[in-house]
Amino acid sequence: MLREFPVFTAAAVQAAPVYLDAAATAEKAARLIGEAAAKGARLVVFPEVFVPGYPYWNWITDPVTGSAWFEKLVRASVFLPGPEIETVAAAAAEHGVYVVIGVNERSPVSLGALYNTLVFLGPDGTMLGRHRKLVPTWAEKLTWTGGDGASLRVYDTEIGPLGGLACGENTNTLARFTLLAQGELVHAASYISLPVAPPDYDMAEAIRLRGQSHSFEGKVFTVVATSTISEEIIAAMEGVRPDARALLERKSSAWSGIIGPDGREVVPGLVDEEGIVTAEIDLARCIQPRQMHDITGHYNRFDIFRLEVNRTPHAAVSPRDPSTPGEGQAAGTAPAGPIVTEGDAP
Description:
Layout: E1 7-14, H1 22-38, E2 41-45, H2 57-60, H3 63-76, H4 83-95, E3 98-106, E4 114-121, E5 127-132, E6 155-157, E7 160-166, H5 173-180, E8 186-191, H6 203-218, E9 221-226, H7 231-238, H8 244-248, E10 255-259, E11 270-271, E12 275-282, H9 287-292, E13 307-310, E14 339-342
Parallel strand pairs: 1-2, 2-3, 7-8, 8-9, 13-14
Antiparallel strand pairs: 1-12, 3-4, 4-5, 6-7, 9-10, 10-11
Helix pairs in contact: 1-4
């Protein structure tokens, strides 16, 4: 429950990973956290699957050829908890900042399951939680499995209610509303640069528009962080497809920045180049816009609309203990409100 309205500096990191090297990418993230903290940042947001990188081969070759690269990615991906995220967490603790960072997360029980995961770290280095991307986008289905509703959560932090989504799921209206209805005021939106989009599609502009949509609709701040395409990535993908450079060098493919509750950039964003965008966030700016449109409050009709969110974690096996009391009992009547949650994980 928000009683104060913090004012703090947020940082959006636009950078490329050390491709398919999780340990080296974690070290790079730690350095960038230090740079952002030196600029006064208390929140640092990194791109989607920053550790150890994005499966670009899914978009430029056939599934059989890409299968060998899937194995490389599995071998390079991380467990949670694990030493790579501990490196990032140590940097968060050293500089006293909140961090949201995208990783390729390995399943502890399946060799063939990878998750596109956002990790939320506190300023003491603890892992606040993780969000597994609900639906991989199009070609991404060759790599990632879908997450579940257990991770659609907003974290109560010293800098305000913090939530986040990965890339295309920032266009999922119900997922975004689920976070807003939990009181989200600071939204982390992590993306990857995708120059191989159709020729008439401006990826950087599309990323910016998605952030503006969430901020304007929810009257919140959105911190957008997008990865870049390094020479190292291009060289690796040229081994997959000879014309990969022409596909991956296209400009206006990455945008990072910070958007206010009026839907406008707080400061000018960054296009394509590596860097860190910082801006002041004043959560009190979220108040007045909601007098007109508060879609999680007075500007809605919860007697007409009802959103149910299943937060039951998915598992490969769900053992049943016949002695467990209350198993199979029906849920009670849900109260009126923005969302109804079922199966909340402990």
